């Protein structure tokens, strides 16, 4: 039986008088690319933010890799094994590509502040390993040649790849991507699709929010559709595309 990586049941979130999430749940298996779609205002980003510790749920049960999971703060979420990217690129613009990935990797390092201050042998060894792993990840996402380039001078598509490399540096159990194709042209989207398939082939599990329905239908193993904060459909892409509620709420309504 395939292992469940993330299981959420009964997630609710209210902002004042607005019920942003109503009894939302998902179950993501090891090695899946799992999609989350819906019209604007459907609650996708709110749910994503609850999963990754930016918002606290009002109710709900959460399990990560078979263990109770409390998404209390983003840094705790990263340590627990969920790495995310954001709809708006959040890189350290003055750092090189390599340095950005090394920052992500430090979630998994052990030497801490004393190692940084005294730079003893163990700290030097760990730093060298961190640098080597960061370079491997840059090579993996296809921008290894830009390791020493200041990240703000990378192309838009390469900045997206760098964000993914930095997220992968945390050795996540779940890679959570918030609209990674936003702003990309057709060629960049094709490259992104190939990269996500490559990541999946390594056994990684991906949770994906994306407005590009065509991309999602051709990429995801399973999809949940939200509308007004409620789940209205869940299944494989073929089931989603033929679901009357989805057609009415999302595809047929021209939502994004």
UniProtKB/TrEMBL annotation:
Per the UniProt entry, what species is this protein from, by scientific name?
Undibacterium luofuense
Name of the protein this chain belongs to: ABC transporter ATP-binding protein
Give UniProt keywords alphabetically. Answer: ATP-binding, Cell membrane, Membrane, Nucleotide-binding, Transport
Cellular-component GO terms for this entry: plasma membrane
What positions does the domain ABC transporter occupy?
Answer: 6-253
InterPro entries xrefs? AAA+_ATPase, ABC_AA/LPS_Transport, ABC_transporter-like_ATP-bd, ABC_transporter-like_CS, BCA_ABC_TP_C, P-loop_NTPase
Q: What are the recorded Gene Ontology BP terms?
A: D-alanine transmembrane transport; L-alanine transport; L-isoleucine import across plasma membrane; L-valine import across plasma membrane
Q: Which GO terms describe its molecular function?
A: ATP binding; ATP hydrolysis activity; L-isoleucine transmembrane transporter activity; L-phenylalanine transmembrane transporter activity; L-valine transmembrane transporter activity
Pfam families, sorted: ABC_tran, BCA_ABC_TP_C
């Amino acid at each position: 039986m395939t292992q469940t990586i993330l299981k959420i049941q009964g997630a609710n979130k209210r902002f004042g008088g607005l019920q942003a999430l109503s009894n939302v749940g998902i179950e993501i298996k090891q090695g899946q690319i799992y999609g989350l779609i819906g019209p604007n205002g459907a609650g996708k980003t709110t749910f994503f933010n609850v999963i990754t510790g930016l918002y606290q749920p009002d109710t709900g049960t959460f399990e990560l890799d078979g263990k109770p999971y409390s998404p209390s703060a983003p840094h705790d979420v990263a340590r627990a094994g969920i790495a995310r990217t954001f709809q708006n690129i959040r890189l350290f613009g003055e750092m090189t590509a390599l340095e950005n990935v090394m920052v992500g990797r430090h979630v998994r390092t052990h030497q801490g502040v004393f190692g940084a201050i005294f730079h003893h042998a163990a700290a030097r060894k760990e730093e060298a390993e961190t640098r080597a792993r960061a370079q491997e990840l840059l090579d993996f996402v296809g921008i290894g040649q830009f390791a020493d380039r200041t990240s703000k001078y990378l192309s838009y598509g390469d900045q997206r790849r760098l964000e993914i490399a930095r997220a992968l540096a945390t050795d996540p159990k779940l890679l959570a991507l918030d609209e990674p194709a936003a702003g990309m042209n057709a060629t960049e989207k094709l490259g992104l699709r190939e990269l996500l398939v490559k990541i999946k082939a390594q056994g990684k599990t991906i949770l994906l929010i994306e407005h590009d329905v065509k991309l999602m239908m051709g990429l995801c193993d399973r999809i949940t559709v939200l509308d007004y904060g409620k789940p209205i459909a869940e299944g494989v892409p073929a089931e989603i595309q033929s679901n009357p509620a989805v057609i009415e709420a999302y595809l047929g309504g021209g939502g994004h």
